[in-house]
């Protein structure tokens, strides 16, 4: 039986301006998030089939940082919904592409474009304060909400912690941001939660300095200087009191 999701056209923009049709399903549950450096192949055509650009023909994948407005709006929107190995076609109205100006000699003004995309890979988003890859995030379930918690916001989170695929922690916790250590929440999780949207679920990879450090955690069976993984789900976040 054919998977209907492979042929269904999805309206990503909500106004018909960016439509996505999956040609080949990707693998896994993770999605790239803002700040991830993605690597993909694309072929761009006009609606009449005229090709204007192709990384496939150049033989070099295209790389960019997602969500930094370095590409057309449709690219940022579409790529954020792709899993590794996925292939899709994006149909992009002018206002999500090059608008009334067009681009160079090959893309006329007010042109609707189509891109065939293949997601190759991405580097996880670095949330660590020093950008030393101490806190890496991969979005598992994205949220349509835009707001992230403000300082001292009260949050309700479901936490799952793993070390070498062994679950050592699985619980619900409620606390005010900035007070996480009083509730046994490691610093890397608390720092990352400041970037979470309500209802978001993401996987975090934490280096020791943002987890249990050189002491480890005997109760959880975590050795010294261990890198651990957490998957928090932001159940609820309210404004600071």
UniProtKB/TrEMBL annotation:
PROSITE patterns: FKBP_PPIASE (PS50059). PANTHER family: FK506-BINDING PROTEIN 59-RELATED (PTHR10516:SF443), PEPTIDYL-PROLYL CIS-TRANS ISOMERASE (PTHR10516). Its EC number is 5.2.1.8. This is peptidylprolyl isomerase. Pfam families: FKBP_C (PF00254). One of its GO terms (cellular component) is cytoplasm. It catalyses: [protein]-peptidylproline (omega=180) = [protein]-peptidylproline (omega=0). One of its GO terms (molecular function) is peptidyl-prolyl cis-trans isomerase activity.
């Amino acid at each position: 039986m054919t998977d209907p999701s492979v042929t269904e056209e999805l309206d990503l923009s909500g106004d018909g301006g960016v439509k996505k049709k999956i040609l080949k399903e990707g693998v896994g549950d993770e999605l790239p998030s803002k700040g991830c450096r993605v690597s993909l192949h694309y072929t761009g055509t006009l609606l009449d089939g005229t090709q204007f650009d192709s990384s496939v023909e150049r033989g070099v994948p295209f790389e960019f940082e997602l969500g930094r407005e370095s590409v057309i709006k449709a690219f940022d929107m579409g790529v954020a919904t792709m899993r590794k190995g996925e292939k899709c076609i994006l149909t992009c109205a002018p206002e999500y592409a090059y608008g009334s100006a067009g681009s160079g000699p090959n893309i006329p003004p007010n042109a609707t474009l189509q891109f065939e995309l293949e997601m190759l890979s991405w580097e996880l988003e670095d949330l660590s304060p020093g950008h030393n890859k101490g806190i890496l995030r991969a979005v598992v379930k994205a949220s349509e909400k835009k707001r992230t918690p403000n300082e001292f916001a009260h949050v309700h989170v479901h936490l799952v912690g793993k070390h070498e695929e062994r679950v050592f922690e699985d619980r619900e916790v409620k606390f005010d941001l900035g007070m996480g250590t009083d509730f046994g929440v490691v610093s890397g999780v608390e720092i990352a939660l400041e970037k979470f949207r309500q209802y978001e679920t993401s996987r975090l990879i934490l280096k020791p300095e943002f987890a249990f450090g050189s002491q480890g955690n005997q109760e959880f069976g975590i050795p010294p200087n261990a890198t651990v993984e957490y998957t928090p789900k932001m159940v609820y976040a309210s404004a600071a009191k």
